[in-house]
Amino acid sequence: MTGDGTRAVRAGLPEPRANEPALPGPAFAAHYHLPGEVSGPYTYGREANPTWAALERAIAALETPDGPGPAAEAVAFPSGMAAISAVLFSQLRPGDTAVLPSDGYQLLPALRDRLEAFGVAVRTAPTAGDAQLAALDGARLLWLESPSNPGLDVCDIRRLADAAHRHGALVAVDNTLPTPLGQRPLELGADFSVASGTKALTGHGDLLLGYVAARDPRLTAAVRDWRKVAGAIPGPMEAWLAHRSLATLHLRVDRQAATALALAEALRNRPEVTGLRHPGLPTDPAHALALRQMRGGRFGCVVSFVLPGRVHAERFLTALRLVDEATSFGGVRSTAERRGRWGGDAVPEGFIRFSVGVEDTADLVADVLAALDEAARP
Q1: Region Disordered: which residues (predicted)?
Q2: Which of 15, 114, 160, 240 has the fewest CB atoms within 10 Å, i.e. is most exposed?
């Protein structure tokens, strides 16, 4: 059994060959030489590509639970939303019922509208307190987001997965924020682990990507077939960049988690900061559950908090020197934004979603505290 760092560095690499690169370059191909009958792993560019395949093997290695049981399979997509859509639309039919979080990613309401237009009933409930348990009767699929984005609430994945399976429902978990090094949903009983690789998985803010992982080959086959029919395929260059980035995943998530906790601790002492959330913070309401469920002390790179109103929050963001005002999270450069500017999240006007990068911890904390001081001046 290898450690997370070793697994991340070696995941998906081919067997070494003399005078060949350790990670072969991207394969750009719309078609392949295909004499005679259709056979072999690569037949047409919309169906498969050797660069995707290597990335998918790598992600599957990271998502596969320790211990007995089948290995995971992964299917790569050009964005996290493409991956989410693939699960929902490959598994749900008119007349089915889906249960979604009411406090999840801001595009989930748009997906709800489209599901309902196709005849799928949708119920929602908050992440905290495992509230989705009450909505499971007759459901075909339960969608979980833990920790939730942007509120950072945590639900008990194993408890919800067990309950959903008793009701005959499949379970999918958005694992974007923890990454497979911080949480393995398949190990906790979920049927699907889904993530936006745009964020912490690849971590450099320079590509869009998504993936779906599952242990049941029938589920991954359905998702892969949806990708083929919808044409939701990743580019080979993006897939290669993503695979390259996995080698530093353990270094990045460990550094970001440690600094995020240090930042959260520093923010506890600021009187203008309310609603502070980070699952690693011992005083956070989700900490005890996160401690049981998340792996290796990796509670994610995101800290959320509320400042006294929109103007105060904007003064704070302007005063930051080491932090980019940008959306998304998980990158090597710290970012922050006033989340209410998008209009899709039920958050106060002064709500800040802060994504911790890999800067020196002391420098980043000092920059945030100085910006808070500047924003508080009359």
Answers
A1: 1-20
A2: 15
Question: Is the separation of the CB atoms in 175 and 293 below 8 Å?
Answer: no
H/E element holding 61?
A: helix 50-63
Enzyme catalytic residues = 46, 105, 174, 199
Question: Mind listing the pLDDT tens digit for each residue in 105-118?
Answer: 999 999 999 999 99
Phi, psi of 69 (to 5 degrees): 110, 165
pLDDT at residue 343, as a whole number: 81
DSSP for 270-285, please give it.
-TT-EEEE-TTSTTST
Q: By C-alpha distance, which of 9, 6, 12 is closest to 248?
A: 9
pLDDT tens-digit readout, 187-236: 999 999 999 999 999 999 999 999 999 999 999 999 999 999 999 999 99
Spatial distance between the Cα atoms of 57 and 59, rounded to a whole number of angstroms: 6
No. of helices (H) and no. of strands (E), the chain: 12, 12
pTM over 0.90: yes
Q: With cut-offs at 50, 70 and 90, classify the pLDDT of residue 319.
A: very high
In angstroms and rounded to an integer, the radius of gyration of the C-alpha atoms of the chain is 21
The maximal CA–CA distance of the chain, rounded, in angstroms, is: 77
Sequence-separated (6 or more) residues with CB below 8 Å from residue 373 = none
* Cβ 28 vs Cβ 50: under 8 Å: no
Please name each of the domains of the chain with its CATH number.
4-246 (3.40.640.10), 249-376 (3.90.1150.10)
Q: Do 167 and 137 touch, CB atoms closer than 8 A?
A: yes
